[in-house]
Design brief:
The chain is of the alpha/beta class. It contains 15 helices and 14 strands. It folds into two domains: 188 residues, ATPase, nucleotide binding domain (Nucleotidyltransferase, domain 5), CATH 3.30.420; 177 residues, ATPase, nucleotide binding domain (Nucleotidyltransferase, domain 5, 2-Layer Sandwich), CATH 3.30.420. Strand 1 and strand 2 form a beta hairpin.
Length: 408
């Protein structure tokens, strides 16, 4: 009988999931990966097994899947059908914001849930859905313990000066500080560097997590030293719909001169800016890269410009850099964006191997490059499964079938 960990990542219109099976020895093994998407409109449950074969592609009744609670209900039924004779060690959740209190993954309790709900204004795109998934899992998979894993946790190793926001003490005491995000991705990259790139693992490394959400992390000896994101996930690099670093005076101008409401400003900064705002076409880099429209090229140019600019800033923080690592959707898949960022970072000593970059090799820099460059796929879900197993242990396992049956 195999023990499983269920990993959930909830969004506004989708519930992404992974099912991991743990062998008697070794790491968690991916059994299935999928999502319930189109929540509230045209919901579907799709999934592939660990080898990439399709194991589910079913349309769900629109009236029956209106929110994350309903999506969990559908997923629980699918789990019962596929893994009814197995056990689940627990449910692990990606939670974007842990605030100042939660530096490490933790078992979810009513107090933890209350604390995470209080952080929703700091991550309005993600936190409400993360919390909603925890509540839904507690109801639909009753008796199965849950673990919250925080995107902010990995950055708590940063020196105090890097976490500082230069505002009065009483405001800082209320939790206003630089937190950093995408920590689960960075933690995974740090965990695989000794195996994938041992020559740089204990050195000065800048990791570029480039996707719809994008950030940079400066690591020294696989620990976070600084991050381009700060108090919220709005800071740093230009992203799909978020502007990245912006003069606070612009926000004041939106309120005072343009008369925008707090809700309008929030929507502008989280959903209408970044690549979408610059191009007026799309927030998806795949649609912009090859688009000859000057607006699309402006957005791509700005994305590359800001990434190179902030790589330089983090190189200064580290006192030099030994390697640049690309990861996440754009970082792993766009040879063109990697090439352009490496070209803009040539002054640091980055010399690209064009052929290696085009074939998406792990090491994409030339053999003589003073600063090496890498493309390493991230795996936040596996990181969550590891934390879930470590915190709960096999002694907490409960039958998947029983948990899923209770949701029917």
């Amino acid at each position: 009988m195999t023990d499983h960990a269920l990993v959930l990542n909830a969004g506004s219109s989708s519930l992404k999931f992974c099912v991991y099976g743990r062998p008697e020895r070794g790491d968690w093994a991916l059994a299935a990966r999928g999502q319930v998407d189109g929540i509230g409109s045209w919901p579907k449950l799709t999934a592939k097994d660990g080898a990439g074969a399709v194991v589910s592609d079913q349309t769900l009744p629109a009236a029956g899947v209106r929110g994350v609670r309903d999506a969990l209900h559908a997923l629980a039924g699918w789990l019962y059908e596929r893994y009814g004779g197995s056990t689940v060690v627990g449910v692990g959740h990606r939670v974007v914001h842990g605030g100042a209190k939660y530096a490490k993954p933790c078992v979810v309790t009513p107090q933890v849930l209350s604390d995470l709900r209080a952080l929703e204004p700091l991550a309005p795109l993600h936190q409400p859905h993360n919390v909603g998934a925890i509540k839904a899992a507690a109801e639909r998979l009753s008796g199965v313990p849950q673990v919250a894993c925080f995107d902010t946790g990995f950055h708590r190793s940063q020196p105090a000066i890097a976490q500082l926001v230069p505002l009065p003490k009483e405001i800082r005491a209320a939790g206003v500080q630089r937190y950093g995000f995408h920590g689960l991705s960075y933690e995974y990259i740090a965990s695989v560097l000794p195996e994938v790139a041992p020559e740089i693992a204990e050195g000065r490394v800048i990791v570029a997590h480039l996707g719809s959400g994008a950030s940079l992390c400066a690591m020294k000896a696989r620990r976070s030293v600084d991050c381009s994101m700060g108090f919220t996930a709005l800071d740093g690099l230009c992203m799909g719909t978020r502007p990245g670093a912006t003069d606070p005076g612009v926000v004041l101008h939106l309120f005072q001169a343009l008369g925008m409401s707090p809700a309008e400003v929030e929507a502008l900064l989280y959903k209408k800016s970044g690549l979408l705002g610059l191009s007026g076409i799309s927030n998806d880099m795949r649609e912009l890269e090859g688009n000859p429209d000057p607006r699309a090229q402006l957005a791509v140019d700005y994305f590359v410009y800001q990434a190179a600019k902030q790589i330089g800033a983090l190189a200064a923080v580290l006192g030099g850099v030994d390697a640049l690592v690309f990861t996440a959707g754009i970082g792993e898949n766009s040879a063109r964006i990697r090439r352009r960022i490496c070209a803009a970072s040539a002054w640091l000593g980055v010399e690209l191997d064009a052929a290696a970059n085009d074939r998406h090799a792990a090491r994409i820099s030339a053999p003589g490059s003073r600063v090496s460059a890498w493309a390493i796929p991230t795996n936040e879900e596996l990181m969550i499964a590891r934390h879930t197993g470590e915190l709960l242990g096999l002694r907490h396992a409960a039958p998947v079938g029983a948990a899923a049956r209770s949701a029917r």
